[in-house]
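Figure 3 (text version): C-alpha cells given as input.
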C-alpha cells in the first residue's frame, strides 16, 4: 500500500487535476491517509444517497478507489466502489466491480441491488429482473428484512427496473 506521503506526492504531480480538487484530495490523503475503512466510510456516506451531485460521486469514486487499492479483495469496499461507479454514470465498470464484490460477499443486498440496476442501465433487462428477484428474496430473509438501507435500495431498483421509462432515459 502507498504511504500517505507517496499519495500526496502523486497528487501534487497531477497537473491535470483542478487545483481545488487536488487540494481536497491532498487534505484527504493527509487526514485519512491509508486507512481503507475511513476512505470506504467517507465514500459510502456519499453514494448511499441517490441525490448527490456529479462532483459528489466523482469524489466518492476517488475515495472508494483509494480504499480498494489498499484492500483490493475486500467485498464491502468493492461494493462501495461499484456503487460509486454506478452513481458516477459508469454502469459497465459498476457491473464489473459489483460482480467481483458479489463473488466475495455472496449475496449482500446492496451489491445485488446495484447489480440489478447496472444491468438495467446497460439494457440487460432479463438479467436485471433476475437480480431484482434475487434481491427480493434476500430482503425477505430475517437477516435483512428489517434493514432500512436494504429496503431503500430494493425500492430504488424496483423503480428503475419496473418503472415506465425506457432504459436509455433512466438515470
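Below: residues designed for each position.
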Amino acid at each position: 500500500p502507498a504511504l500517505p506521503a507517496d499519495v500526496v506526492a502523486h497528487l501534487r504531480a497531477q497537473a491535470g487535476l483542478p487545483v481545488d480538487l487536488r487540494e481536497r484530495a491532498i487534505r484527504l490523503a493527509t487526514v485519512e491517509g491509508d486507512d481503507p475503512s475511513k476512505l470506504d466510510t467517507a465514500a459510502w456516506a456519499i453514494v448511499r444517497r441517490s441525490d448527490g451531485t456529479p462532483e459528489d460521486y466523482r469524489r466518492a469514486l476517488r475515495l472508494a478507489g483509494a480504499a480498494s487499492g489498499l484492500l483490493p479483495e475486500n467485498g464491502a469496499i468493492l461494493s462501495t466502489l461499484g456503487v460509486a461507479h454506478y452513481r458516477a454514470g459508469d454502469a459497465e465498470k459498476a457491473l464489473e466491480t459489483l460482480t467481483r464484490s458479489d463473488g466475495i460477499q455472496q449475496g449482500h443486498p446492496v451489491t445485488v441491488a446495484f447489480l440489478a440496476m447496472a444491468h438495467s442501465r446497460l439494457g440487460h433487462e432479463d438479467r436485471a429482473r433476475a437480480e431484482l428477484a434475487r434481491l427480493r428474496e434476500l430482503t425477505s430473509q430475517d437477516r435483512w428484512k428489517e434493514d432500512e438501507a436494504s429496503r431503500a435500495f430494493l425500492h430504488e431498483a424496483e423503480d428503475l427496473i419496473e418503472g415506465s421509462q425506457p432504459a436509455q432515459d433512466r438515470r
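The longest helix spans residues 54-70.
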